[in-house]
Amino acid sequence: MSDSKLKIVVWNEAVHEARNEPATIGEMYPEGIHGAIAAGLRGFYPDSEISTATLADPEHGLSEEVLEQTDVLLWWGHIAHGDVADEVVERVQRHVLGGMGLVVLHSGHFAKIFTRLLGTTCSLKWRNEGERELVWTVKPSHPIAAGIESPIVIPQQEMYGELFDIPEPDDLIFISSFTGGEVFRSGVTFSRGKGRIFYFSPGDQEYPVYHQPQIQKVIANGVGWVAQPGVFRDAPEVSNPARGWFEA
């Protein structure tokens, strides 16, 4: 994995950090959630270019020039999904369909880009009481599960539970169980156009989950799987053939 040279962008709305909500977020994530995720990735991809972008940046930091050079985009959002400009969402969608990898994290399940690509509400059950989460590997043969212990123990985490209103995933890699008895499809993949998508739910603004080494490794594995740096970035063209195109 360390030999892979990729252009990776970690996107975060960064609203919780700006509001200092919760009051402990600055202590847990002094460089923001995006900074913690990027720092974790640098341990696995030391030769790659890893940058961050936020909602407050011009064009949310996701200009055409940035995206055309990006192999993998990671997306974290929670309370400002509606503030993401539609033209930026359309731009990201076009690049995913053309082959850019997308990793969607935690409450990014409600992000405009995720619901648009999946075509469902992406709603789920939730409860935030700081419960223990166990992340169980159910497809150990998948590259994203390589080297991952099962279960990953997360001492405190927001509960996400079924039903998770998503299409049937291409791969179900991880299932989580919670103290209250709920289960959740916490690690799933999809393909859209030429692009690969990985959704991974553990990680919240109230808990230091993104500092856990096994969580960092799952995210790094996900980046490696969705990345397709050799794919020519274009969308399929559809046209009507001229009459007489076929002769018996």
Automatic annotation (TrEMBL):
- Domain ThuA-like span(s) in chain numbering: 8-226
Q: Which Pfam families match?
A: ThuA
- What Gene3D superfamilies does this protein map onto? 3.40.50.880
What InterPro entries does this protein's entry cite?
A: Class_I_gatase-like, ThuA-like, Trehalose_catabolism_ThuA_prok
Name recorded for this polypeptide: Trehalose utilization protein
